[in-house]
Structures are given as structure tokens and as C-alpha cells.
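FW: tagging you since you asked about this chain on Friday. Here's the raw sequence from the shared folder, copied in full. Didn't touch anything.
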Amino acid sequence: MQPVVRDVLVVAKTGDARAAAMAEELAGFLAERGCCCRMAVNQTDAEGCLGSASLLDSGSSPELAVVLGGDGTMLSVARKIMGDSIPLLGINLGRLGFLTQLTGADWREAMGDVVTKGFAVHQILVLRCEVARQGRQVFVCGAVNDVVVSRGAMARLIRVEASYAGERIGSFRADGMVVSTPTGATAYSMSAGGPLVHPDLQTVTLTPICPFLCDLRPMVFPTDRPLDLLVQESSSEVMLTCDGQAMFPLQAGDWVRVRRAERQLKLVSVGGFSYIRKLQEKGFIRDR
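HL: got it, structure written out here
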């Protein structure tokens, strides 16, 4: 259990008037309860960074970061501070809100309890993605949901070879490959036919996107060894994306290595976390 909070970072979605107004309201709310509140706007000009320099002052380490926005803002902020072990609490101003814990209408009571009584955290697996080109590292990024290697705008297949722990799985023609965390299993991976995976598991799921004449089914691997994707050939552009936000153009011969990040991401647990209930509330599980 996290002790009483005195130092809070409030991060608002960039360009969102509602988020900006709520940030001011939240800052006043926290000040009334004796909290030192620092405010930041989540910029999107450095989506690929693994550090938190764009959100935190040098040497600062808040006890809690409150994110005002939707799942996209949560993902962006999480990648920037995932190396600092700062717990995140999201107030949903978007649509689905799978990663957020509160809404714009119900945050006051819960937020008051969090800062005056402390809170529990739920830790989730996050990934580190590295790209090697001709033996040299050319890109590094974190990912909360997924790492995707896929074709560009042209509707042409690419060929990708997959390996796990140095052992070749196979070479496949497809629109691409999704490497997903359990948290990201409800995102692109599920749309491509991947399974739902409980977030307490330390696993990654490899799911092909529209595979052509191959028998690869979604595969689940432990995260103590790396999963590698080799871009073998393509007749058009190939893109790497992390969480659907950070992008990097790939070339034939590039290696994409996905591994477990050194630290897990901490999410504040409000009212007790239930993965099954979350799936039910958000429409991923429905009785027929």
C-alpha cells in the first residue's frame, strides 16, 4: 500500500480544452488537501522516447501521476515514465478507457481517498523494443500494449521471419505481425485474432495479421527470453509501431527484438482491480 500522497504530477492531454480545465480544477482540489501539484501537458513530438524528460523536471520524482485523457494519452505518458516507477492513475476523458481508473464525473471521492489514505497498485508487464540495422542499434522504444511490424499504405504483403530465444519459428507472408503484452491483448492483437490474456501473466503473444498461405496461429511465449522479427523482404514500405503511436520505418534486413522491460508499469488500483469485471464493463465479454 502506497502511503499518503504529498507530491502529484498532473498530465493533461495536449490540445484538449476539457483536460486543461479539469487539470486546473484537480490542482485546486489537491492543494486543498495539502498536496504539492505540478502540471504538464503531454506532448506528442517525442513519442518514441523511453525517458521522462519531457514530463518531469530534472531530479523530480512525484509519488503519483494523474493522467487526464483517454487510453491513447495513458499509453503515451506510460512510455515516457515507465522507467521511473511512478504509479499512474487515469481519469478517462476519451471513449473506451480500458487503462483508466476513473471518469470525469466520479473522480472526486476516489481521488480524495487516494491522496489522504494511500492506495494499492497493480503492476503490469511492459516491453522494450530495439531495432538493429547492419549490426547497429538504430531505434529503441517502450511499449505498453504492443509492438507491430506491418506493411505501409500499399496493400502488399511483407515477409517476416520470427524467432524465439534464438530458435527459428518460421518465415511468413502477411500484412504484418503483432507482439502484444497481456494488457494489449484487448487491442490490435485481439482484432487480428489473438487471445485475451490475463494481465498477471508474464507473457507476450505473437499474432500474424492476415497471413497468406501459412499455418501460423497466435502463439504465447514467456518473457524471460527475447522474441525477434526479421524483415526479409517487402515490395513496399514496412513500419514499426509501438502502441500505435511511436513509428519507425524499417528496411529489409532489419531485426526487431522485443523483450520484457526492466521495470513493470504501476497502475493505481481504485476500488479493487478485477480483470474479468473490466472485460465485462467494457464489452469484451457478453452473455448471449
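FW: The chain has five helices and 19 strands.
HL: agreed, and The chain has two domains: 7-125+264-281, 127-260.
FW: great, closing this out.
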